[in-house]
Write a structure and sequence with these properties.
The protein is of the alpha+beta class. It has helices at 32-35, 138-141, 144-151, 155-163, 194-197, 215-218, 315-318, 321-328, 332-341, and strands at residues 12-17, 20-24, 38-45, 49-56, 60-66, 68-74, 81-87, 90-94, 99-103, 110-117, 129-131, 170-172, 192-193, 203-207, 221-227, 236-238, 244-258, 264-271, 275-278, 283-299, 306-308.
Length: 343
């Protein structure tokens, strides 16, 4: 199967209104999303913007790009709302079928990126949302007769229940409504602050099921990677059949991905806001330009197994010198020189 790899800004405005917007990457513009059954979306909430309660048909991980947000989540069959405050640099796993709402109680915009898998989605390659209320809400789809009998309402109250919220995805909340503004649970049980774990220079902070067992439930892991100006990441690939979907948080640079038969599958510049996919077993390397580059990524495995083609763990370091000499068809002296570079 030929994979169509390229980088892409969000190509579809799903919803945009006074309270904010939701934007998506779609297989129509990025076919690899459906081929790798992954997905990406971006939520922007303006001050007092409120993403109405909803659930989705996918597992994903949210990352706060900027701002601070209040989140409410009801896990399937729990019957309890967990409220937490998340801020820039936080990552929050979102379980498929869990009900969530998102509210910006501050005075500046909140931006969040969602990356995940879409194998169970009605539209593989993107996330499908089911809203409880609003113009696209589930309640509004039932007849007044059904709603009246289900909730014991008269016709007037049944219509009030289903038709009072005119917004479809995001609403603006009046200041007199006091939304929850304090957590009612241990936020650290749900949220990982990747921003505080990553060094100021080159480095990576990861959340996997090895350290956060709850990720086993969603089958995903995530990380935040930082490259200084002019630095390059060691080429790496997954050995467990997992895909990686990557969002460029800031900065710019260049990415190369090499796949089947040693073919260069992607060689392109990337900028803030771009999403690209590294298919399973393909090797990828990123080169930051003079501004450096940060990116957030999600793997479709809770415990991804990665190998690097450079550095101290490179197979070129582990291979016997005579084997490496024969494989590369070079002199013994060059083999020794190569091994000194693998540090």
């Amino acid at each position: 199967m030929e994979l169509n790899l390229f980088t892409q800004m969000a190509d579809t405005t799903v919803y945009e209104g006074e309270g904010g917007g939701y934007y998506a990457w779609t297989p129509a513009k990025s076919p690899v999303l459906s081929q790798a059954v992954v997905g990406a979306g971006k939520l922007v909430l303006h001050p007092r913007g409120f993403a109405l309660p909803h659930y989705a048909d996918t597992y994903k991980i949210a990352y706060v790009v900027q701002g601070e947000c209040t989140v409410g989540i009801i896990l399937p069959n729990s019957g309890q709302e967990q409220v937490m405050i998340i801020k820039k640099g936080d990552a929050l796993p979102v379980v498929m079928g869990s009900i969530s709402w998102w509210f910006n109680g501050g005075d500046s915009d909140v931006t969040m990126i969602f990356l995940g898998e879409s194998s169970r989605s009605y539209n593989p390659g993107q996330f499908d949302y089911f809203f409880l209320t609003g113009a696209a809400g589930l309640l509004g789809g039932f007849s007044t007769e059904f709603i009246s009998k289900i909730y014991g309402f008269n016709k007037s109250d049944a219509q009030k229940l289903t038709k009072s919220q005119p917004n479809a995805v995001i609403a603006i909340i009046d200041a007199e409504i006091k939304m929850p503004n304090q957590p009612n649970c241990k936020t650290e049980n749900y949220v990982v602050s990747l921003e505080t774990l990553i060094p100021n220079s080159n480095g990576c902070a990861e959340m996997t099921a090895d350290n956060y067992p709850s990720l086993d439930r969603i089958g995903l892991s995530a990380g935040l990677k930082r490259l200084e100006a002019g630095s390059v990441s060691d080429p790496c690939y997954t050995t467990d059949g997992s895909h990686r979907i990557i969002y460029v948080l800031k900065g710019s640079g260049r990415v190369q991905i090499v796949g089947l038969n040693g073919a260069l599958a992607l060689d392109t510049d990337v900028n803030e806001g771009h999403v690209f996919v590294v298919p399973r077993y393909f090797a990828a390397a990123e080169l930051a330009d003079e501004n450096g580059m940060d990116f957030f990524y999600v793997s479709t495995s809770p415990r991804p197994v990665m190998e690097q083609l450079a550095g101290i763990t490179s197979p070129f370091k582990a291979l016997s010198s005579s084997v490496l000499q024969s494989a590369l068809n070079v002199s013994p002296e060059f083999v020794e020189l190569l091994k000194t570079k693998l540090i």
